[in-house]
Amino acid sequence: MRRVAITGLGAVTPAGLNARDSWDGMVAGRSAIGPLELPRQEKITVPIAAQVKNFDPLLHFPRKDAGKLDRISQFAVVAAREALADSGLALTPDLAGTAMCVLGTAVGGVGTMDDGCHMIYGEDRNRVPPLSIPKFMVNAAASQVSMDLGLRGTCFAIASACASGTHAIGTAFQAIRAGAADIAITGGAEACITVYIVVSWEALRVLSHDTCRPFSRDRSGLVLGEGAAILILEELEHACARGARIYAEITGFGANADAADLTSPDPENIGRVMQLALADAGLAPADIGYINAHGTGTAINDVLEAGAIRRIFSNSPPFVSSIKGVVGHGIGAAGAIEALATALTLHHQIIPPTANHRAPDPEIGLDVVADGARRIPLTHALTNSFAFGGLNAVLAMRRYDP
Q: What is the pLDDT of residue 393?
């Protein structure tokens, strides 16, 4: 089977408006969680979120076009432009005609939907803007990226809650490996910090009121985030032939479904999905030096994930960290942001720390890199995503060594 390289990266995250600044924030453990700022937020009791601040769409789109894109699509297009430029890839008509575009999102353009519902129910209007549907449909971000870059190959969106970005990247990886495409623009985007969505998460009673502390004994819940991360995937020989810089290789993908509880992961099955990714990559547990954990900062989920890791890697537990203390939980974008971070971890040989960690939890029992970034030789890594509905996805990556 063909090998698959990551040759371009782009991002818009709470930690930075591009991939480099986002990575620098993750490595520094500089939390981007802060006071929630929303119109009509008087009904919200949770005071914090990890929002993308200082993002001005008019710096990226003409005024007449900016209003046609929901915030999620704006993030996705800007990150995709950066990733393509970073890759140095020239999209010839032939290449653009077969280039794949697959993006993950959990909910699509809910900012547009939230505003429309307020117009109808809050302001008693009987009309909403005419482009509301194409702005909030779940495939809007993928379609806008394909139109902006002129991609005419297979294009679609994947919606699998918090595993969406990882499922999208895994699907693109499988297509290139199988010969269905030579390049893919893939990743995830989300912009779901709206009044209705935040209130809905409040109803689940899993949101923190102070900050996100993954794996820490005093963790108090997750913090909602937003943003986008886009990866350019390329068949390895194609990338090498043009002298591309290669951040890392994707070597395996595992996915499964718990078929059990709607909100609580099945610890046996999340262990099994890591094993599926290892098997797909032809690796043993001892080969893995680092896991970018799902690490949401909730009391139960962190324990279940850590327990699954200890079982699978009992003889050689890898280093584990979560970047959600920096960028929050990006929901459908989370897996893509974490895949970008894992690729850069391998490329730079630096593990980003678990930010905001204050006290070891004996139920975790892992080295969660709580004392700052670590420069450690690494060859193989995993990145985990476990979603509501019991939908799990894991990517295996390898440092590229020509």
A: 98
Rounded Cα–Cα distance for residues 186 and 184 (Å): 6
pLDDT tens digit sequence for 230-244 = 999 999 999 999 999
Question: What pLDDT shows up at residue 365?
Answer: 96
Kindly name the residue from 101, 155, 167, 294 that is annotated as catalytic. Answer: 294
250-398 shares the fold of 4-241: yes
Spans of the chain, pLDDT less than 50: none
Separation of alpha carbons 351 and 319, rounded Å: 8
Question: Cβ contacts of residue 89 below 8 Å, gap of 6+?
Answer: 7, 8, 95, 183, 232, 234, 242, 244
Q: What is the CA radius of gyration of the chain?
A: 20
Would you say 185 and 154 are in contact if contact means Cβ atoms under 8 Å apart?
no
CATH 1.10.490.10 at 4-241, yes or no: no
Q: Active site includes 294?
A: yes
Return the closest-CA partner of residue 105 out of 33, 48, 176, 187: 187
Catalytic one of 60, 329, 357, 380 = 329
Instruction: Choose, from 101, 162, 192, 212, the residue flagged as catalytic.
Output: 162
Fold of the 250-398 domain: Peroxisomal Thiolase; Chain A, domain 1 (3.40.47)
162 catalytic? Reply is yes
SS3 content of the chain, % helix, strand, coil (to 5): 40, 20, 40
Which of 194, 181, 186 lies closest to 112 in space, CA to CA?
Answer: 194
pLDDT in tens, 36-81: 999 999 999 999 999 999 999 999 999 999 999 999 999 999 999 9
Q: Which amino acid is at 56?
A: D
Stretch (H or E) spanning 398: strand 391-398
So what's the pLDDT on residue 316?
A: 85
Is residue 240 among the annotated active site residues? no
Q: What is the pLDDT of residue 402?
A: 85
Q: What are phi and psi of 132, to 5 degrees?
A: -60, -45
